[in-house]
Amino acid sequence: MKLAKTLIILCGLLVIATLAFPRDINSKTLAAIPGSHEQALKTNNLPYIWRSADYFLVEWNSQQLNKVASLSVPITIIANDSNERASMYIFEIGDFQQIPDEWKNLILYQNGRDVLLNIEQEEAERW
Fold this sequence. Notes:
Elements: H1 2-20, E1 29-34, H2 38-43, E2 50-51, E3 55-60, H3 62-70, E4 76-79, E5 88-92, E6 107-111, E7 114-118, H4 121-126
Antiparallel strand pairs: 1-3, 1-4, 2-3, 5-7, 6-7
């Protein structure tokens, strides 16, 4: 009986530990960093996945996020667990264009005329 109670307590602790730390070690966060902080990224070997004239898109794990936080680099979180998202595409809107109404709920991030959308490849090709 004592063994059964011990096992139940251990299982309960395991469940609590799982709930307390739900993020997967391999999960990535998609974020934007102002382009003016390029030197901080280079100096600290922090990779990026997209470079624009004004910003970087990065996909970092928790260690990399902690590193950049210690550097006081401003960061805009776009999506947590970005590796579980559908495809993402960046579109540049022309000077005289407006964002299509169909995009309103698909926009993950916008910087100037650049718009990052959470859409599938077929839909991106259509646009």
